[in-house]
Amino acid sequence: MIAIALAQELAGAGLRWQPRSGDTFTIPGEAFEGESFAVSELTIEVHTYPSGQVLGFNGTTEWALDSVAVEDTLWLPREDQLRELLGQTFIALTRDDAAYVVHVVDAVTGEDDAYSAATPVDAYAQALLALLVQADAAG
């Protein structure tokens, strides 16, 4: 699973979440520290209202938590979701002795940029974060 700090950085850099079945999220704050939840039609459904999206908890499986606004959650994207978000900039995932390395095409220079981390999901997250920051800087 992606490191919480990286997920927070991605959200801060503008990554937005459109919840769908199978997605994982957490609720920031001490009350739910270390807890993650999965969107599923059986236990946690996405409800769309004019005021925004709400994640509804069905039954009593989640400490009688009825619902939480999507804005009050933190998406924990999976490896495949991050790879998809990298799109055509993604070149390859490799591994050296110490880390996993994601190679992407730099949008400005066209050269190979590499981002490494202890896990593949964090390496993908590092690459996407750089892409989001670069896009924001470009305006």
Structural notes for this entry:
This protein is an alpha+beta fold. It has three helices and nine strands. The strands form three sheets. The protein has a three-stranded antiparallel beta sheet with strand order 2-1-6, covered by helices on one side. It has a three-stranded antiparallel beta sheet with strand order 3-4-5, with no helix packed on it. A three-stranded antiparallel beta sheet has the order 7-8-9. 20% of the residues are buried.
User: What sort of overall outline do the alpha carbons produce when their principal axes are compared?
Assistant: elongated
- Quick one: biggest sheet? 3 strands, antiparallel
Which structural class do the helices and strands define?
A: alpha+beta
What is the spatial order of strands in the main beta sheet?
Answer: 2-1-6
Kindly list the characteristics that best describe this protein.
single chain; 139 residues; alpha+beta; 3-stranded antiparallel β-sheet; 3 helices; 9 strands; elongated; Pilus assembly protein CpaE
Question: Brief overview, please?
Answer:
With about 140 residues, the chain is of the alpha+beta class. It is built from three helices and nine strands; from the N terminus they run H-E-E-E-E-E-E-H-E-E-E-H. The model has no long low-confidence stretch (mean pLDDT about 90).
Topology at a glance:
Elements: H1 4-12, E1 24-26, E2 37-38, E3 44-49, E4 52-57, E5 67-69, E6 74-75, H2 79-86, E7 90-95, E8 100-105, E9 112-117, H3 120-138
Antiparallel strand pairs: 1-2, 1-6, 3-4, 4-5, 7-8, 8-9
Helix pairs in contact: 1-3, 2-3
